[in-house]
Amino acid sequence: MPQHIGIVGCSAEGAALCYRTICVEGAQFLGRAHDHPEVSMHTTSLAEYTQRLARDDWEGVAALMLDSARKLAAAGADFLICPDNTIHQAFGHVAPHSPRPWLHIAEVVADEAQRCGYRRVGLLGTRWLVDSEVYPEKFAARGLAVVRPSVAERDEIHRIIMDELVRSLFMPAGIAHHQRVIARLRNDEGCDAVVLGCTEIPLIIGDTNSALPTLDSTRLLARAALRRATQVKA
Asked: Domain of 44: which CATH number?
C-alpha cells in the first residue's frame, strides 16, 4: 500500500497546486487510471503565519507547522510535506519535535538542479525566503551556487506574491516583472536555471515563458512525495 501523504498547507494556491499534482500524477506511479496515494491536508489561516513572519517569530511559525503536523499524524499521515518555501526557514525548530518525518522542499529542488547539471541558479520568492539561507545552504551542500535578485527586484516580487498571487490574482504586469528578472539573471549574472521558490510562481511562470529553465518547487515537491509514498526511485 502506498504511504499516506500529509500536506502542511500555508498559502492556498501553492497548497492546492501541490495537492492537485499529487492526485493528477499519482497514476503514473501506481499504474492505474485515477489512482493516487491517500492524502490529507491541514492549513492554519495564512494571516496567522504572516503575523509571525512580519515580526521574525520563527518559533511561532514552527508552532503553527507542528500543530498541523500533529493533526496530520493523528489522521494517519506517514510523512509530511509543506508546499511553502518561506516557512521552511522555521524548519530547524520543527524537525526535532515533529511526530512524522518530512521532505524538505529546498533539498528536493537542489537534488533536481544537481541531476540536471545546473551550476548557478537564480532564486525567486518572497523577501523572507530570498533573504534567508534556506536555498543557499542546501545548494552549497551540493556544490551549486544560488544568485539572489537585486533588493529592488526582490521587493517587487514580494509585493506581487503577497498582494496578488496568494489572492489568486495573476496580472500581466506581475508576469512581466518576473520575466525581466529572470532574463537579467541569465544575461547579467550567468545563471543557467531559476528556482520558482514561491509555490504560487509556477502559476504564472514556467519553461514556456521564462528565459531560463525553471525549477518548479511546487511540482518537484509533489513528485518527490509520490516517489516516497510509492517507493518509486527517481
From this structure: 3.40.50.1860
Residue ranges making up the domain that contains 20: 5-104+219-230
pLDDT in tens, 198-212: 999 999 999 999 999
Q: Do 225 and 201 reside in the same domain of the chain? A: no
Work out how many domains the chain is built from and give that number: 2
Residue 182 φ/ψ, nearest 5 degrees:
-60, -45
Q: Are residues 190 and 146 in the same domain?
A: yes
Residue 201: helix, strand or coil by DSSP?
Answer: helix
Q: And the C-alpha cell for 12? A: 492556498
| The model scores a pTM over 0.90 | yes
Q: What is the pLDDT of residues 94-140, one digit of tens each?
A: 999 999 999 999 999 999 999 999 999 999 999 999 999 999 999 99
Phi/psi at 128 (nearest 5 deg)? -55, -45
SS3 52: helix
